[in-house]
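QA checklist item 7 of 12: single-chain prediction sanity check.
[x] sequence parsed
[x] length recorded as 336
[x] structure emitted
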Amino acid sequence: MSQRQYINQMKPSQRIEGAFTIANAQLGRTKNDKPYLRCLLSDKSAQVPARMWSMDEAHFERLPTDGFVYIEGETQDYQGQLQIVVHQIDPIDPSPEQLADLLPVSARNPDEMLARVEELIASLEHDGVRALGELFLEDEHFMREFTVAPAAKQLHHAHLHGLLEHTVSLMEAAHRLCPLYPGINRDLVVMGCFLQDIGKTRELRYDVGFAYTDLGELVGHIVEGTHMLRDKIDLLRRERGVRLPSGAALVLEHIILSHHSLPEHGAAKVPMSPEAILVALIDQLDAKTVIALDASGRTGKGPPSNANGHFTERNWALGAKIYRPDPLAKPDPISG
């Protein structure tokens, strides 16, 4: 193709070819017990489901479960949503130019987001908690991963700098919400928002698309985050002579362990302190709102859809269909 057409520009019944990121590749069986490929294909603009109805097992074994492929196929409308029917598919090692088209990037400036994280950590009143945050900020290897990594493989903030974007949104929300609740410890909430996903710097990789590392599969970011916190607290004591109060260290660890709220959502503990409850709610606020906005197409990241459909397919992460229109949006001067 002479000029790439991104997924969010595609319409049904178009012939397509090009490099894409593949995720969650699986070999299914048709009603006639014939093998077929089902997967998700994406570029930096959006992600769509894809099917290849003629797929032998030997060819499937050559494909990455998560990685990069070159495909030929066509788009079609399936129940109001765009999907791709693949005719030919092969694994590739993308060129730097192709990679720039495939991995989505945050629309926000990473330098500005990082500067705000630094400001919020500097605003912490307790010397020990602030020194803990500064120790993380001074860790060049950690910060290199923290500022570039996605926040998720595909659910929310699944783009480069996504972890930074998610974290600064949580810290900003905490900064604005804490004054509404006298008695809440702002330092623990803001620091908890910074710490809750630090394990994702080791859980996720982004050199072959967005995928889990071995540590991510076997340990996960919640448990690994507590390991990282304990290491920094110990380093703070040994190298700087600063002892974080044991109760504060315990609550911060509990915030990491409980920020997914429920065991069925991955939490090791349910939130059991006012600060842990607030962090978990702020995390859900940001993650679910972003998932809904992306699904609705209002952020420009959702997959293309049949223009007349007001609802998405049921979103499994939210447990509901999502109503797309903004009823107060001004009509397009061209079409409206």
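[x] summary fact logged: The chain has twelve helices and seven strands.
[ ] second reviewer sign-off
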